[in-house]
Description:
There is one protein chain. It contains nine helices and 14 strands. By secondary structure, it is α/β, with parallel strands linked by helices. The termini are far apart. The mean pLDDT is 97.
Amino acid sequence: MLSVHQLAAFNDNYIHILLDEAAQEGVVIDPGDAEPVLQAVAQHGWHLTEIWATHHHADHVGGAPKLQQKLGLTFSAAGSDARRLAGIDRALQDGDRLRLGRYEAQVLAVPGHTSGHLAYWFEDERRLFCGDTLFALGCGRLFEGSADEMWHSLSRFKNLPGETLVYCAHEYTLANARFALSVDPGNPALLKRIEEARALRDKGLPTVPFRLDLELETNPFLRADRGEMAKALGLDQAPAEKVFAALRKLKDDFK
Ligand SMILES: [Zn+2]
């Protein structure tokens, strides 16, 4: 099995380390800070080989230069971000395939949060590393993309197998739950999910990763194509993009 380790960084970021221990290869995804990675490597004796970035924000790539320098890692990121992200060794685009020992990931371009945002999809292992595109019960803010683009990006995830484990880059679940409840208060799956998330957080445990099929039933942003969500927003018969845009706007203004 592909082994995945989660490191906490800053207030609520997650850095993920993926290892093929037999092949002595390892990838760190979104090292916003080098220190927790260097500490974990020293503690466990892991052999890392690469950095994969989902997008150019500092809380995702801030630790990359130090890790390149100290551990000699190769830095892969969106080619379209090369003008604003220094030190890229390998420029990625949609459809590229990346190897990690015996495992292979597909690069998915998922613009919306940023224009160059990427996700990494391990089809055989059913694992998705999606940065700030999809969160448990939420989705990323639209800093550089339109609602249409983000809906299209999220729709790519919606088509992945339900058992997929989603690794997003922030622990936002309980904050997102408040908004989800405000727009979808009668959803029993959502109520149950929030209880489970609260129980995990009360024990200091992460709510990431999470299963995609559960997300499809509980995340209002992924449910923008459901009639009941359109109806709840007074947008009966509106196309999903429109419902999604309305949800995103409501969330931006949500206190
Ligand atoms: Zn971001």
